[in-house]
Amino acid sequence: MQSDIAVLPGDGIGPEVTHEATKVLGKVADIFGHKFDFHEGLIGGISIDTTGVALTEETFEMARGCAAILFGATGGPKWDDIGGTMPSNRGLFRIRKELQLFANPRHIKMLPALVNCTPFKSETVEGVDLIILRELIGGLYFAEPRKQWSTAEGRQAVDTMFYTEAEIARVVRVGFELARGRRKRLMSVDKSNVLQTSSLWRKVATEVGKEYPDVELSHMYVDACTMELIRNPRELDVLVMDNTFGDILSDEGSMLCGSLGMAPSASLSGSPGGKVFGLYEPIHGTAPTIAGQDIANPLASILSAALLLRYSLELFDEALAVEAAVNAVLEEGYRTADIAEKGRQLIGTKEMGQRVADALTSSRN
Ligand SMILES: NC(=O)c1ccc[n+]([C@@H]2O[C@H](COP(=O)([O-])OP(=O)(O)OC[C@H]3O[C@@H](n4cnc5c(N)ncnc54)[C@H](O)[C@@H]3O)[C@@H](O)[C@H]2O)c1
User: Fold this and answer.
1) How does pLDDT run along the chain (365 residues), one tens digit per residue?
2) Pocket test residue of 88, 284, 294, 304 for ligand 1, highest count of atoms within 8 A of CB
């Protein structure tokens, strides 16, 4: 099978971790007899420095024309504060919005080898396997007005929380579809006791739920859910929520699998199950303080590449093989600094990527 894959590494540790993910994808192609053509482009701060904008038309069109996008991360102190508008993120936001990547499943899975790598008791995190499905192109992060201004009484600012019924229904539907393929439990998370958008969210989720009688739907307020996520994470399966809540809860959730460096994500234009276009990225950012030191954990990026194989290329065996290779390397005791453990061998970004690629080879021999 031949596939074109856009690779947008971005800033900070983005290029380091993305390079390891493409290394692993290249090995998948060799072993399974595919041809992946990687098309690399600039995005974010590095694109601003080189071209004057966070994403050129040329790069946008290139990415749109591929089967999927492998993305690193964008931003950093050099660009984030320009006018308070985070210009380096505009490239990513444009891709998400214009390509309608509204559904963002973020996978939080505790791999058995890492059960002692979290701040939690092992019995709390053992077996955790949940998805935080974040609505990605609506709500507080996109709606207008959003601005700051000065008045005689001091500075003021506004952001807008806005959702349409259709925007809620389509992401909730993806939640039901994901839940159907798992433990058939969907939790819709909102703040419907306070927010009008959340009240609509709960009504729409309940209505859509009638189409899925085989999936058990429950609702929880977001504040209670932040607690439930660390109190009883093993009970949770698929959680669907708006853009802001999903952003925050998924970072919290990443601690359940050891590190931000272990949590992959997909940004999809529809339900998984057919070949769906998507952008694949680790949920972490550019981690500027550790960039360029060969110490970042590339596994979230590698696991995002596995999601790319599964959701956009429908290469299910290949996706499983990558996940098994990650597992094997961790079981052998190799760790990057963020998941370091006494008695385990500390290795760098490149070596971790290479070891996963090598484990992939040997797992097929
Ligand atoms: N999708 C994106 O491109 C995206 C997402 C989040 C943040 N950002 C940007 O990233 C920059 C830094 O943001 P931040 O510090 O809030 O979040 P961050 O995710 O970059 O880092 C948070 C913490 O986790 C650590 N960390 C993150 N990824 C790691 C990895 N793979 N291995 C080891 N440790 C890792 C960092 O060192 C840091 O201590 C900002 O400019 C922000 O705007 C971009």
Assistant:
1) 999 999 999 999 999 999 999 999 999 999 999 999 999 999 999 999 999 999 999 999 999 999 999 999 999 999 886 555 567 788 999 999 999 999 999 999 999 999 999 999 999 999 999 999 999 999 999 999 999 999 999 999 999 999 999 999 999 999 999 999 999 999 999 999 999 999 999 999 999 999 999 999 999 999 999 999 999 999 999 999 999 999 999 999 989 999 999 999 999 999 887 789 999 999 999 999 999 999 999 999 999 999 999 999 999 999 999 999 999 999 999 999 999 999 999 999 999 999 999 999 755 55
2) 284
Q: Select the CATH number that applies to the domain covering 1-111+258-365 from these four: 3.30.470.20, 3.40.640.10, 3.40.718.10, 3.40.190.100.
A: 3.40.718.10
Residues classed as catalytic: 141, 191, 223, 247, 251
CA-CA distance, 267 to 182, in Å (whole number)?
19
Gap from CA of 50 to ligand 1 centroid (Å): 22
Ligand 1 centroid to residue 158 C-alpha, Å: 25
Give the domain ranges of the chain.
Answer: 1-111+258-365
Q: Where are the extended beta strands (E) located within 93-209?
A: 103-109, 129-135, 147-151, 154-158, 185-190
Cα–ligand 1 centroid distance for 285 (angstroms): 3
* Cα distance between residue 121 and residue 98, in whole Å: 43
Q: What distance in angstroms lies between residue 35's CA and the mean position of ligand 1's atoms?
A: 32
DSSP SS3 for 142: coil
CA–CA distance, 73 with 81 (Å, rounded to integer): 17
Ligand 1 binding pocket (C-beta < 6 A) is: 13, 17, 73-76, 80, 92, 260-261, 281, 284-290, 296-297, 300, 338
Cα distance between residue 223 and residue 334, in whole Å: 36
- Round to whole Å and give the CA distance between 7 and 16: 12
Residue nearest to atom 18 of ligand 1 (CA): 285
